[in-house]
Amino acid sequence: MSHRSSSPEPQSGxxxxxxxxxxxxxxxxxxxxxxxHGIHVFRQGAGLCLSACVGAxxxxxxxxxxxxxxxxxxxxxxxxxxGSDWGPHWLCEERVLNIDRxxxxxxxxxxxIAFTCKxxxxxxxxxxxxxxxxxxxxxxxxxxxxxKRSGFFNVISQSPDPSTSSxxxxxxxxxxxxxPSELLAKLEDIIxxxxxxxxxxxxxxxIDAWGTQAAAWLHLAxxxxxxxxxxRLHIWxxxxxxxxxxxxxxxxxxxxxxxxxxxxxxxxxISLPKIQHGLESHRHLLEQEEIANYxxxxxxxxxxxxDQDLNRPDKPITNMSISYEQLLLxxxxxxxxxYVVGVASTKxxxxxxxAPPGPKGWPVFGNAPExxxxxxxxxxxxxxxxxxxxxxxQFSILGEKQVVLSSDKIAHELxxxxxxxxxxxxTPHAMAYITRDLNPALMPKNEAWRRERKxxxxxxxxxxxxxxxxxxxxxxxxxxxxxISYPSDFDNHMKRYAFGVxxxxxxxxxxxxxxxxxxxxxDSFIDEAMKCFRPDEYPGNVFPFLRxxxxxxxxxxxxxxxxxxxxxxxxxxxxxxxxxxxxNGTASSSTYQHFFENRDEYVISNEEAxxxxxxxxxxxxxxxYNALLTFLYLMMEFPDWQDKLQRHVDKVVGPDRMPSFADIxxxxxxxxxxxxxxxxxxxxxxxxxxHRLEEDDIYDGYFFPKDTVFHANYAAIxxxxxxxxxxxxxxxxxxxxxxxxxxxxxxxxxxxxxxxTPFGYGRRACPGYDFAERTxxxxxAQIAWACEVKKPIDPETNKPVVIDMKYEPTxxxxxxxxxxxxxxxxxxxxxxxxxxxxxxxxA
Length: 843
Prior knowledge:
The protein is of the alpha/beta class.
C-alpha cells in the first residue's frame, strides 16, 4: 500500500502504553529485541516504505544460497533471486514481496509498536537513529530520502526538537546499487564532460530515463553534508549485465565522492566486483591504495543467467538490390523526407534561435555539387566559407544539415563540454560501409563502440611500460642504421619504423624492411580505404540516392563491396596469424598476445576485436609515418630550428651515446618540434572525422537540429589569433617560451600531446595519442643527434631545390613524395649508430 500523509500518528498521551510502566532499561531491551538492526527504505507505489533488514548473503560467487530446489535453468524463483536489484539483500526483498501488501506501510509490522504513543515513538526513533543502519537500494529513492521529498518523513522525522529532522541523525547509511550498465556509462559520460569543462556535477533530469537516478549519484556528496551525525557510508555496487565489471571506469564513477574526504569523522567503504586478471588499469581503484578516508574491498560479481550473443553485430549491414520502381519510390520518399525534415527542424527551433549563416545551395541538392566537384580537399572551401560567414557555417547535402566550426573555443564547448550530445559520428557512407560500422574511430556511438573503446584503452595502456619502450628504442636504432646506410630511401625507412613499432608492441612480430608483405599489403589497403572519404572518388557520400543504383552505373559501389570483403578477410587472416604464433610460442610479448591469452576476460566479440586492432594498425602506423615525413621536410624548410634542435640534444645527451627515453623529460625542444610538426600538418591538410549531433541543441542563439553533422576546421582552429598570435604555421618556441599563451610548465612534462586539438575532441579523441607521441619523440631525438637534413642542390642553378609540400586530401593525410638529402653529422656518430643497432640485433 502506498504511504499517504494520513498514516497513523502516535497517540498524544505520554501514558498511552502500559509498556511505559516498565523501567527504561527494560523498555530498551524490548525495543532492541523487536526492532531490526537495519531498515530498508524502498518505493511502494508513489510513496516510500520501510522494512526490516534480515542481513546480506555471502553467496555471490556461485549463487548457491539463493537456490532452494529445482532446475536452475527453469527455477524462476532462483532466477529472480539472482537478478535481484537488492543485490546481497535478496532475502530482504523476498520477505517484502511475501508480506501482505497492507503490512508494508511504515506504520505496520515490526514498527507497529512505535505508534502506540508519542513517548514510545520518540524512544524507538532515538534507538534507530543511534544503533540502526539505513539501507537504500535505488538511486531515485536515495534522492527522495536525502532531499526529504516524501511523506515518509512526516512519520519518522518527528523528534523532541521539531527544528531538527531525525533522519539527519542516522549514523550509518548503506547504499546497495545494482545499476544498469547503461546508467553507469551515462554517469561516466556526464562526469567526464563536467571534468573537462571544469563545472560542478549536474545533469538535466529530463534528458532520458536515467536522468533522476544519475542526478542522485552526481549530487550525493552535496546532499550528505547536512547529515552531521552520519559516521559510516557503505557503498555496494554492481551492474545488471552478464559482462565483466572491468569495463566500468571506477575512478570516474567514484570521483563524485571526493568532496566527502573533508569529513574526517566519516568512514567510507566501497565494495566492488573483482577485476579480471590482466584487465586492471588506471580506471580501476586499487584495494591497497589509500584514497583519503575510503576503504576498497573486492568480491565476486553478482551472477546472472542471461542469454547473450556477443557475436551478433549491433547494426548489421546487408547488401541491397533494388528495382527501378523501388528506386523511383525511394527518390520520391527521399524528396518528401527532405522537405518534411526541413520544415520539422524549423518548427522545432526554440523561440529566438536561428539557423547559422552559410552558403546558399541548389534546390534539393544543397551544396553537394560544389563539394563533389572538388579534388577531395575540402579545406580551401571550409576556409573560404569561414572568412565570409564566421566561425560557425552551415551548409547542406540533400537536406542533411552540416556545420563547419572554425574556433577551438566553440569546438571545445560542443564536442567536450556537451560531449554527451556530440559524440556520435557522421562518417561518410563509403567509409562506414567498408568497415561495416565497426571501426571504433568511425562507428556510431553504441554498445559495440564502448566495448571496442575499452579494449583500445586497455591495449594502449599496456604499451606504456618499460618493456615496450625498450622495443621502440630498438626500432629507432634500426631505422637510424638504415637511414645512414641508405639515406635516399628515407620514405621507406620511416614507413618501416612506424610499422615496426606497432607490429612488435601490438601484434608480436617484427618487420625488417618496407618490402615485408604485411607492410606492402596493409599500406596499399590503407591508401585505397582512405579514398572512401573523398566525394570525388565516392559520390555516394554526398548523393545518397546513388547508393541504390546498379554497380555498372556507379562503379564506386562495386569498389566499396570489394574493399569491404577484402578488409574483413585481412582482419581474419591477421587474427589467425597472430593467434597461431602465440600458440606455437613464436610470438613476442604483445598486447594481442595478452588479449588472446586472456580472451575469456574481455567482453567483446571476435569480430569487434578484429576491427579494434585493425584501427590501431591504420592509425598507429599512418600517423607516425606521416608526422616523420613532415618532420624531415620542416628541418629542410627551417634550418635554424634544426640547428637549435641539434645543439639542444647535444647539450643533454653528449656525443658518446644515442638519446634514450630516459632523456626525453630533459628534451623539451624535441617534444616541442614534434608537437609543432603535428600542428603544421593539421593546418595544411587535416580534414578530421565529423561528429553527429544526437539531439536538438542551441548554441549562441543558433539552432542545431538532431543529426546535424559537425566538422572541426583544424586549418582555422590551429591558426586562431588568440592562441597562436604570431600566425606562423611552424614555430616550436610557442611551447617553450613564457611569452606565448601556449606555454606551460614544468618543461620536464610540457609540451606534450595530451588533449592536443589535432588528435580530436572529447570522447572521439584518438586514444593512442601518447603511443604516437612516444613513437615520434625517440626517433626525432636520434635523427637530430645523428643526422643533418638538407634540401638537395639543383644542378642547374646550384641552389637548394624549391619544395612545394603537398598532402593527400584525406583524414590522416600523407605527404606526397618530395626530395630530401640526409647525411650523418660525423663519422663517429655514424659508427655508434651501427654498433648500437648491431647490439640490438644480437639481443
